[in-house]
Amino acid sequence: MTNPTSDSSASASAASSSVSPQVVLLGANNTNQLQAQTLVAINSTQVPIKLTKGDNYAAWRSQFENLLFGYGIMGFLDGTKPCPPATIPAPASISAVDQQSGMTVPNPEHHLWLRQDRLLLHAIQVSCMGAAQSIVTRSTTSAQAWTKLAATYANRSNTRRLGLLDSLTNVSLADKSVAEYMQGIKNILDNLDLIGNPIDDGATVIHTLNGLGPAYLPLASAIRARDTPISFDELYDKLLDHESFLNRDGSKKSESVVTAQFNQRTNSRRGRPYQGNSSNNMGSNHYQNSGNNHGQQQNYGHAPSGGRGSWNQGNQFRGPNQSHSPSNFQWRQQQYNHASRPICQLCDKIGHTARVCRSRPQPSSQAWPQANHMTSDQIDSRNNWILDSGASHHMTSDLQNLSLHSEYGGPEDIMVGDGKTIPITHTGSTSLHTSTKSFPLSHVLCSPHISHNLISVSKFCTHNNTSIEFFPDCFLVKDLTTGASLVRGRNEGNLYIWPKSVSPATLLTATSQHQVSSLAWHQRLGHPSLQVLRHLVSSHGLPVSKLESQFSHCHACLCNKSHKLPFGISTLHCNKPLEILFTDVWGPAHLSSFDNSRYYVIFVDYFSKYTWLYPLKHKSDVPLVFKRFKTLVENFFNTQIKTVYSDGSGEAQSLGHVLANFGIQHLKSPPHTPEHVGTAERKHRHVVETALSLLHHASMPLRFWSLAFQTAVYLINRMPTKVLLHQNPYSILFHKDPNYRKLRVFGCLCYPWLRPYTSHKLEPRSKPCVFVGYSIEHNAYLCLDRISHRIYTSRHVVFVESVFPFANHPSTVTQVLPEQVSNWLTNLTSNTTHQPDIECPAVPNLQPDHATYLPDMLHISLPNTNSPMPTRSVIHDPSPASALLPTHVQLLPPSPPPTAVEPPMRPVSPPRLIQTRSKNNIFKPKTILDLHTTTHTTPQSEPNSLLQARKFPEWRQAMSVEYDALVKNSTWELVPAHSSQNVVGCKWIFRIKRHPDGSVARYKARLVAKGFHQRPGIDFTDTFSPVVKPVTVRLILTIAVTNGWSLRQLDVNNAFLQGTLSDDLYMEQPPGFTHSTLPNHVCKLRKAIYGLRQAPRAWYNELRTFLLSTGFVNSKSDTSLFTLHQSGHTLYLLVYVDDIIVTGSSDLKVRQFIATLAQRFSLKDLGPISYFLGVEATATSRGLFLSQQKYIRDLLTKTNMLDSNPVSTPLSATESLKLADGSSLTDATQYRQVVGSLQYLSLTRPDVSFAVNKLSQFMHRPTTTHWNAVKRVLRYLKGSQYHGLLIHRKSPSHLHAFADSDWAGDPDDRRSTTAYIIFLGSTPVSWSSKKQHTVARSSTEAEFRAIASAAAELNWLGHLLSELRIPASTSPVIYCDNAGATYVCANPIFHSRMKHIAIDFYFVRDQVARKQLRVAHVHTNDQLADSLTKPLNRKQFSDHRFKISVLDGCSILRGHNRKEES
């Protein structure tokens, strides 16, 4: 530290020259002549210890305290040197007037103090790393940073004390050095000392000795036996000395390598096999070779000997702590008995080895053999194999000698006789061939650094079941079983050389010179790999001209052996939260949750692994959820989302547009590669497994899965994970520990405080409930009342965590149904006393401890009209698009109360007791304190009156749009009212138009005239307006899909207003839009308006006139079909009131016609057909899929059957419905409404045609049995709501039909049921199921009437196709399973018994005779119309449904999504 100077110039000079980087001298103000002072700056070299995660906080703090105390500036941190005031009184040199006025001047000490404090803060920040740095990032003073670090890492809580004591108890040396081991103990002791819980030396020594391994057992025993205590420092020195002793001993053992002269034997001196030194397995991890080749010392491998590894009795190499070796194969080691002392090989004396034997001959300078060097020049070192009894493995230097090999990745090396090591590059196998036999060599080591090929005698004999006898000039290989000699080799240059291999291929070549290419062998052997083929060629001597790798590009292998490539380490990296988010949608769930959710979406922060989960009702809600999620988290964390990673599914496509608008990068996984979003996929598995475990443990029904999933994410965010080095996501994201004391067992019994909800003072203050999770908007718990199905939110809860109500009373578990509740409950007050167990949130709007649920993101308050500030509300329809106020009570969908529970008795009130609001704890809030705001709520139901609609701006806007369109179109003119006028009233009709997924598309208001006030003949004449037939729609769609034409959908705005009226009509002014100056006038209508009897007819005539003028021709078969054939192009137009479908052979002509039509009428071009007449149309690779799942879902919701159990068939096959079954319904309205709604399903669902027809026969007098049958049909639709009709893209264009009847199948009147289904190619276009009008006397008669009905329909379809100019390639065919009816159609002789159906006979027979129709017989099992005549069992019904192209849309659309992704 540089001494300060006395004048400012010296100070400035010192500062400019930067003599010391740690100290900068700043002089005082020259004007004030204040004493010069100094600033101390600390660099990184002065604080070498960096604070990382708190384990070294004591050392870090000690170095800081010593350094700052030396500089005398410790007061900045401990508060003894506070900040001086910013200003001081004026000095004496100022005039007396200024002094009297209290003039002040800036205080230079204040500025100097601030600068010094910032330098200290900077020093603290740069000395912190990782998690510690984030703690002090937002500190403004050095004292604040110092205090935060002390509070984090020197916390005196009992939890931290117990954790440190536990760490000290479980400390272990393991594979650490003594220095590392003692340093870890020292850090724990320092942290304990910081929190005021020091440990004495005696306890420290005990913990240290307990953690030592068995190698330190002698030292530990000696220390424990001492009479005088030992200090920690002295123990440290002794452990270091003992560690050095162990290291020296280990190095000596590693030097004593087994050589050719070191050999242990048993007590007998001769005849015992060779035995390695099993006690010498503590050397380096190498393969050793003593070179024991009958007296010739060679430096090639020996038995494997490892550093810390050893060979166990299971012949499997073990590494440290008996773990498996990382080598790619297991080596076999023959076990031998061993004695305690070595025997010399030269003199046969015990106690020494040949290396130190006195009888050992001295080396000669002329003929001493050299290691790795052959003395004979005739030996080819690359092709010859040398027998070595001291080698533990076969070895080679040439990779070509191996027929099947692979790279070696293990840590072992080859150790030669002089102690050096040679690396191993490959391992493999080969064979040594003779004229009579081949000897395989397995586990051959390849190293290019050795000069000869070695054969391990022990391995050779073991693997080939042979023995080897060595003689001075040769050796013999004999079969152990027969004793026959197999191979004879020679001794060349004192080495036993394996004779030249005679390959079987060479023998074959002598008789046949024909050789086959490697590609041909590859094809013969069934396309094996190159390595397998090499092994076969080498082992069996296959005649191969040249072993090439040309078949590595085999086309058949490349096409049929394609696999996913391996995935490398992820390159994604982020430094802070929200940089990278992973998202994915799970679902649909087989069972909707209690809040009607079937999906959920998760957002996973890649930095902290923190997860947000949101239940969804529809997949289409994902973009809306993300928008609100983005706003919430970005405001809370004050950072921006940069990248979102998802798969390429349909919801991800819609999310991509939202991300593009916000400028967020959207990364998507390749098609069919979920591994790229493995973070989200693995999170799905973790969440689902945890949630199902919670439900199973609590024995709760699966319909509560959304609550369990939310609770699971809540817990997962607080659980440590190895990915975060055993930290939890909550702590990483919010920089504080979660409150684990708050947690309770999911599904257990609880008793919330319900005093605010009681109606009188004698009512109990609580009731038994079920704990179902943690509140989002409150720091409280969620408690389910199983009787009233309410969810209470309370922080005053008593838990009984050993009792689970759903497990104790399974009989009371009932299926609840959703109910729309729209009444606000009364305002109830609640106590807010403090409980220490509850975790207090730091942020009121978003509690980090509760940031895992959807309602936390979507708060939409309900309107406050006349009721005071509500604190109690009910659930209407929880979904991402509609959430609630912070609630205290939520109503689950109701169900009948269990019979086992008695309803509470109501107290008898006195006769004249006056009940007031105050007695029920209901108080009107004072206006001056009523500071809450009201947020607009989107209407979810359709209003029934103008008064209800005026409360919502959406409906007001819709009425304004409708009124403006009427005025713009000059629909009426105001005229004075007269008594001769028949004035028609009008009203507003409100409808919510929805997308196929149920989300709101727009709010539509329609002004409708009260047409029932009109008088026929005076106000109207013709009223009929044709609409297109469903058969025509399906036929046109099939033709368009088969030909690959585009299908466009149009909607005419205010279609009825386009029609011109020919009669004088008067109407009242629209309600809510009465003219201010002419309130008594009436509207004289010029154009047709909705509700008028003649309005549909007027609009149809207007459209028809225009289409005919443009060249279209009105079809005679269906008046709502218009065709245009012009210049080789074809256009078809279908009209259903104001909905229009246009298709044609030319997309250009279609666009031109739409533009022409838009000039005449106001249109909305809805693009490709997607939703027409309640039918959802989805284009797939297989064709066009038509379904009515939204219609079915709405019907199930309307009838409270959404949560019913599905069945496989619409009607029972064992029970027949009769007219008199059951008791009559008191009110048949609902029965008729539901059956009428089911009839509309016949547009796309021929599988329910018979059931609907059967139930329609009881419309006049339905019974309870019939109503149960209706509910069974609804249950069938529940299980098959995603089924629909598939229009095949590739299909022939010929007509064929299946006709069938159920003879006398009605038990009430024995009439038969007729049914037919007609196909255009593979697609059904027309079907019917109805009861015959008369009783058939035979099955032939019933079947013939079915044929006649199908023939009539085919005749009509034929005329329609001729108008469409689609020629029939063949005559239509009707398939019938009744042989008699088939013969009657073909037999020209009319039977007398068929006279009563003569008309049908001649109708069919005439068409068959002219070859316009053909009737063929089909087996009953192949009769596709059978399911339309009677109920079938599950197997038959499922087969027939599949054959008539009614398929499950989930699998079809899943393939459609994959097609879009690719």
Automatic annotation (TrEMBL):
Superkingdom of origin: Eukaryota
InterPro entries: DNA/RNA_pol_sf (IPR043502), GAG-pre-integrase_dom (IPR025724), Integrase_cat-core (IPR001584), PolX-like_BBD (IPR054722), RNaseH-like_sf (IPR012337), RNaseH_sf (IPR036397), RVT_2 (IPR013103), SH3_retrovirus (IPR057670)
Keywords (A to Z) from UniProt: Aspartyl protease, Hydrolase, Protease
Biological process annotations from GO: DNA integration
Molecular-function GO term, any one: nucleic acid binding
Boundaries of every Integrase catalytic domain copy: 573-737
Polar residues: bias regions: 256-266, 310-329
SUPFAM superfamilies: DNA/RNA polymerases, Ribonuclease H-like
Protein's name in the database: Integrase catalytic domain-containing protein
